[in-house]
Write a structure and sequence with these properties.
It is a single chain. This protein is mainly alpha-helical. The chain has helices spanning about 15-25, 30-40, 45-55, 60-65. Helix 1 (about 15-25) crosses helix 2. The chain has 4 helices and no strands.
């Protein structure tokens, strides 16, 4: 599995779904659909997305850190 970082070229909003898709070896579209379906359930999905957007480094910053 690859390191968890938000890609610079496959972003829709913040790149969180694209980063998770890379990490788990699936397509970004599939991960986005899963996220949208999970928003139908009660819980803090949007807050989790925002937190991951803040916490996950951008791909450019992750390259310079290693």
């Amino acid at each position: 599995m690859s390191r968890l970082a938000r890609p610079t070229n496959d972003r829709m909003i913040g790149g969180v779904c694209a980063a998770l898709a890379r990490r788990f070896g699936t397509s970004a579209t599939t991960m986005r659909v899963i996220f949208l379906l999970s928003c139908l359930l009660p819980g803090p999905q949007v807050l989790l997305y925002i937190a991951l957007w803040i916490v996950l480094p951008s791909e450019e910053k992750a390259r310079t850190a290693w």
